[in-house]
User: What shape does this take?
Amino acid sequence: MGLLSANKTETNTMVLEIKVDPEVFEKAVQQVFRKQAKSISVPGFRKGKAPRHIIERMYGEGVFYEDAMNDVFPDAYQAAVEEAGIEPVANPQVEMVDVSKENGFTFKATVTVKPEVEVKNYKGLSAERKVYKVTDEEVENELGRMADKASRMVSVEDRAAIEGDQSIIDFEG
Assistant: This one.
C-alpha cells in the first residue's frame, strides 16, 4: 500500500492517489470470499461449499472486489494521510481509478484539510488596557441580585404575614 501522489487542487483541498498492492488486495478478496461463501448457492454444490473460481466464473471475477476494497480502504487511506502529512477535516470523496487481480487497486481521495495559517507581524503590537472602577455599592447590588436569583420560596404557616412575604388569599366578595 502506498501513496502515489498528493496534489493540492484548491485552497484546503488535496487529491491523494493511493495504490493497494495486489498481495494485500488478494488477501482481502480471500477473506471476503470466506465470509460470503456460506450464503452463496451454486448448482451442483452444497450451499457454501462451492470453490472460489466456480463462483467467480458464475458471477464474474469482480464479485468480491467491492467488499474487499471496502475492507482495505480505511487502512490504505490512513497510511496515505500519514505519509502525506496532512490533517483531514472531513470524510474524503473517493473515486476508483483501477482495479484488477494483477495490479491490486488504485483510487483517488479528494479530501478537505485544515487551512494553512501564516501569522505575520504580530510581534510589537500593542493594545490599550481598559481598567474599570467598581464601587462597593455596585458589588453589594450585584450580590443582592445574585442572592435573589438563587433564593427559593419557603412556606411559613406558624406566623402572621409580614412585609416582603408573598401571600395567597382566598376570599369571596
Q: What stands out?
A: The mean pLDDT is 87.
